[in-house]
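Translate sequence into structure tokens.
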Amino acid sequence: MSAPAGTADPLDSKLDVNLRVADLEASIAWYSKVFGCEPIYRGVDRTLEGAATSLACFRLGGVKIWLMPQRAAPAPGAAQRVGLAFMTRQPLKDLRAVLAARGATFDDTPIADFPAEPDGAHQGKDAEFMYVLDPDGHKLEFCRTF
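Result follows.
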């Protein structure tokens, strides 16, 4: 049976949550102890130049929770932000064109070690990603792994 018109996922994606953590190993230990499971993945995210950042992934409640080190120490009293990442198989150039035609606004701020292609997608060795801004300024990441 096919899905009723208009009910298919227009992004052809799945939702992952990215959490920046102060101490990756301590966070892995905490998640393992509290939720009674081990990471489903431990690895690295690499820039085009090969600089690696360790990360880990847990599956909790059917959602992948990616733990990654903070890029910089948060300001005193600053709230931690949760990052939503839509993992897709679509080339981001094509997805960006569709979203732009629908009125999406993008955050094309340069990111150190992840150069942006002319189409706006940032390139790493293992993935490409881009950010869409919602009306409140929340960054919605779209990522395609290689």
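Note: The chain has a mean pLDDT of 85.
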